[in-house]
TrEMBL record:
PROSITE patterns: WD_REPEATS_2, WD_REPEATS_REGION. This is Nucleoporin SEH1. It is found in: Endomembrane system; Nucleus, Nuclear pore complex. WD repeats lie at residues 7-48, 277-309. Keywords: mRNA transport, Nuclear pore complex, Nucleus, Protein transport, Repeat, Translocation, Transport, WD repeat. The gene is SEH1_1.
């Protein structure tokens, strides 16, 4: 099997690429301050440029798609080193490639004192909300309070993840957000990673009716342990009927870690390390679960994409390796038969 390069046409480094809910659209963001959206041509399986536009005044770090149930047209959120999060909506009547097909709905996170490193829409069952985190070490949640007015977003939550303001060094500070995708947890949960620490938060009932904010209250319920470097990526697996959660991280120390999170009667999580996988040998930049939460993919500085699966002995093993290098010794996909 050969790998076909995806040519985005960005002029500088690409920092993030995301599929939409149906996997038929891709958004990419770059240091060139532009967002590009591509549509899948079902007849040729080629990706066709939907539109590109200058979205921010500095490099764009992350992009996130909103669930399609909230609008008849597609919605994106992007975050940047210009200290803002912006929300965009597609205008299907505009010509593709015109630069006018996506319009700005709102600009958020102006309360931040530094770059915004990650933005992520919450699962649709939690409502139309998003979280963002930046170098000021504060995790913020914004909610759309008027279903008929998507330009109106309210800051409902601020959580101080770190107490020290960090310098704005490109890619030297790692922050990330991952919401728990399960509808059946006792409380709303999410992970925020900051540097070499992973914090899991859960919602708690408000104590009084005169609380300062109208949104949920959150408290830290556990940490993700044992990291010896910056956490570059975190992924929370879909539950698919399991009575526990799986959370994976990719770390600068070269390890992919898989944690089992068991929900306690009070809504807390008990964390157990299931696997520490160092096949990459070098820094791990991204981890991601499949739709059933049974296969984990990881990508690292070794130029390889690895797929991990749990065998009948409850051991996580590498089931295949995809060589993504452009070097002449690239051999495509190697399959591990021991799984």
């Amino acid at each position: 099997m050969s790998l076909k390069p995806f040519i985005t046409g960005h002029e500088e480094l690409i920092h993030d690429i995301k599929y939409d809910f149906y996997g038929k659209h891709i958004a990419t963001v770059s240091s060139d301050q532009h967002i590009k959206v591509f549509d899948l041509d079902s007849a040729t399986s080629a990706w066709i440029l939907n539109d590109l536009w200058k979205a921010h005044d500095s490099l764009i770090g992350k992009v996130s798609w909103a669930h399609p149930e909230f609008s008849s047209s597609k919605i994106l959120a992007s975050c940047s080193y210009d200290r803002t999060v912006k929300i965009w909506q597609e205008q299907p009547d505009e010509m593709p490639g015109s630069g006018r097909r996506w319009t700005k709905l709102a600009t958020l996170a102006q309360e931040s004192y530094g770059p915004i490193y990650d933005v992520c829409f919450a699962p649709n069952h939690l409502g139309f909300k998003l979280g963002c985190v930046g170098s000021d070490g504060i995790f913020r949640i914004y909610e759309s309070v008027e279903p008929n007015d998507l330009t109106n977003w309210v800051l409902t939550t601020e959580i101080a993840i770190l107490t020290l303001l960090l310098p704005a060094k490109s890619l030297q500070s790692s922050f990330g957000i991952e919401w728990c995708p399960s509808k059946f947890t006792k409380t709303e949960k999410f992970v925020v990673v900051a540097l070499d620490q992973g914090f899991v938060y859960g919602s708690v009932p408000k104590q009084t009716d005169d609380d300062e904010t109208s949104g949920e209250k959150y408290m830290k319920i556990c940490n993700l342990p044992e990291h010896n470097g910056l956490i570059r990526s975190v992924s929370w697996a879909p539950s698919m009927g399991r009575n526990y959660h799986l959370i994976a991280t990719g770390c600068k120390d070269g390890f992919v870690r898989i944690f089992k999170a068991s929900e306690q009667p009070n809504g807390d999580l008990r964390i157990e390390t299931l696997a520490k996988l160092n096949d990459h040998k070098l820094e791990v930049w991204r981890v991601s679960w499949n739709m059933t939460g049974t296969i984990l993919s990881s990508a690292g500085d070794d130029g390889k994409l690895r797929l991990w699966k749990c065998n009948y002995l409850n051991e996580w093993k590498c089931m295949s390796v995809i060589n993504t290098s452009n070097r002449s010794d690239s051999r495509g996909i190697e399959t591990e038969k021991s799984i």
